[in-house]
């Protein structure tokens, strides 16, 4: 009986997996992507995206901010930080609030213009899933799945509306010049952070296996809401930790192994989530370098956490935080080769070049590139890769393998500054007390 159920479940999965993919035979050479868009904030970046004139636009999550964020408060009735914290900083909003936020987002004029001219596809991250950093435990996931799919104009009879999670795959282009886009769902099945459990869950893993082992495509883009290659947490801890595949090391290894085993060439990742743009590569995971191009966000940006005269502090900290995977170049807008202002991702494929050439850039609000890479497709072929073990090990060692003084230098700097400020404050208080005592004594004598 159990066997039969398993067989039926397997057949169902195949049916769903094969049906949840989409194909279009037009040659695809311009793709844009982005993430983290606050529906209530101005979104001038659509002008630059429309000017780029993508044929396909990919949402990588936080397409709206659906949850409610309380301000940081140390004191008062609702305390959101400190050991005395008594309420969570993020809470889910009601269904009608989610719906009205999606309506605002969908009707932003620049975005409406994009929808009229490009095919828009996408996945979600935590804030449009419904709650900051949430995973499989989040109860509103099925109703919110419907809201996302409505936002993306998913047909009513689409199998994507019946599966558990919003993962999907798309194939564009004529035979021999195909681009496959695989969008992952990193929320619906995700185990708690720091459980080192699963991100994708069993059904999505078996679907992904079939997608990667299936018919070949010249280029395969895997979209993940959270970063796949960069493991910033290894360098920002214990100050703070970011979400990423790096937080689930076993799951990440499984992903790399699947890519190797599938013998699929031309794979790279795109991601969002972190509120800055960055390009990373990992040379020793597969038979060829695995790139991860992160664009975040369309409105949300790390520099905005400080007033504009203090942006240089954010830029300095971005430069100071070590990274072993980041692709550095002289053409970056800033020395760190990260970009903490609003941005989007732009992919251009030159099909006439031999080998086919990919130009991938993160672009700012004026449409100009702030960091980018030119990749010849021959670089993404295991059989022809020039990156063989031992030759170029620049992007081969994990962040956690850095010497501790380098790895933790951000935390060391921050704690040192805090300690210095504390000492200075104590010194100041002592000085004031001393001066007062001298004055008092003088008064008495007089
Ligand atoms: C979105 O923008 C509005 C208006 O500027 C602001 O009040 C709100 O705090 C922003 N939300 C987030 C999550 O940044
Ligand atoms: C990423 O960093 C976290 C935090 O330091 C660590 O626990 C994890 O093992 C790292 N993952 C990888 C793949 O290095
Ligand atoms: C193999 O790679 C080299 C350089 O990376 C490139 O010049 C060459 O054209 C590639 N061969 C094929 C058949 O793609």
From TrEMBL:
PANTHER family, per database record: CALCINEURIN-LIKE METALLO-PHOSPHOESTERASE SUPERFAMILY PROTEIN (PTHR33987)
A Pfam family recorded for this sequence: PhoD
Keyword Transmembrane: yes
All residue ranges annotated as the PhoD-like phosphatase metallophosphatase domain in the record: 32-284
Transmembrane segments annotated in the record for this chain: 412-440
Source organism: Durio zibethinus
Record protein name field: Uncharacterized protein LOC111315211 isoform X1
InterPro entries: Metallo-depent_PP-like (IPR029052), PhoD-like_MPP (IPR018946), PhoD-like_sf (IPR038607)
Keyword field: Membrane, Signal, Transmembrane, Transmembrane helix
Signal sequence region: 1-19
SUPFAM superfamilies registered for this protein in UniProt: Metallo-dependent phosphatases
Lipid biosynthesis listed as a keyword: no
Top-level taxon in the UniProt lineage: Eukaryota
CDD domains from the UniProt entry: MPP_PhoD (cd07389)
């Amino acid at each position: 009986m159990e066997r039969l159920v398993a067989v039926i479940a397997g057949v169902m999965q195949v049916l769903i997996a094969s049906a949840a993919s989409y194909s279009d035979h037009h040659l695809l050479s311009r793709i844009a992507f982005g993430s983290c868009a606050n529906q209530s904030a101005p979104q001038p970046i659509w002008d630059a995206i429309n000017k780029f004139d993508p044929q396909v636009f990919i949402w990588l999550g936080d397409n709206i901010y659906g949850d409610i964020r309380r301000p940081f408060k140390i004191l008062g009735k609702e305390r959101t930080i400190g050991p005395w914290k008594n309420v969570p900083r993020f809470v889910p909003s009601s269904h009608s609030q989610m719906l009205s936020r999606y309506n605002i987002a969908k009707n932003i004029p620049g975005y409406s213009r994009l929808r009229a001219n490009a095919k828009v596809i996408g996945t979600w991250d935590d804030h449009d899933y419904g709650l900051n950093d949430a995973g499989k435990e989040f109860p509103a996931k099925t109703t919110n799945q419907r809201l996302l799919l409505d936002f993306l104009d998913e047909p009513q009879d689409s199998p994507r509306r019946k599966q558990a999670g919003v993962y999907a795959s798309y194939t564009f282009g004529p035979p021999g010049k195909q681009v496959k886009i695989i969008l992952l769902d990193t929320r619906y099945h995700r185990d708690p952070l720091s459980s080192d459990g699963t991100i994708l869950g069993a059904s999505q893993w078996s679907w992904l296996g079939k997608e990667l082992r299936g018919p070949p495509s010249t280029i395969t883009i895997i979209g993940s809401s959270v970063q796949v290659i960069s493991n910033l947490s290894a360098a920002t801890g214990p100050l703070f930790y970011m979400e990423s595949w790096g937080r689930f090391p076993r799951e990440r290894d499984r992903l790399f192994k699947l890519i190797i085993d599938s013998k699929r060439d031309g794979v790279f990742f795109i991601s969002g989530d972190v509120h800055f743009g960055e390009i990373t590569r990992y040379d020793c995971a597969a038979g060829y370098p695995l790139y991860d191009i992160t664009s975040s966000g369309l409105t949300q940006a790390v520099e905005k956490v400080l007033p504009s005269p203090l942006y240089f502090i954010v830029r300095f900290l971005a430069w100071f935080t070590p990274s072993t995977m980041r692709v550095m170049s002289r053409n970056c807008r800033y020395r760190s080769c990260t970009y903490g202002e609003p941005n989007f991702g732009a992919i251009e494929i030159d099909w006439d070049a031999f080998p086919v050439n990919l130009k991938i850039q993160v672009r700012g609000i004026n449409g100009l590139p702030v960091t980018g890479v030119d990749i010849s497709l021959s670089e993404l072929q295991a059989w022809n890769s020039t990156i063989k073990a031992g030759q170029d090990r620049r992007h081969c060692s994990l962040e956690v393998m850095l010497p501790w003084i380098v790895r933790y230098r951000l935390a060391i700097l921050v704690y040192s500054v805090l300690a210095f400020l504390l000492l200075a404050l104590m010194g100041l208080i002592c000085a004031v007390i001393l001066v007062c005592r001298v004055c008092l004594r003088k008064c008495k004598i007089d």
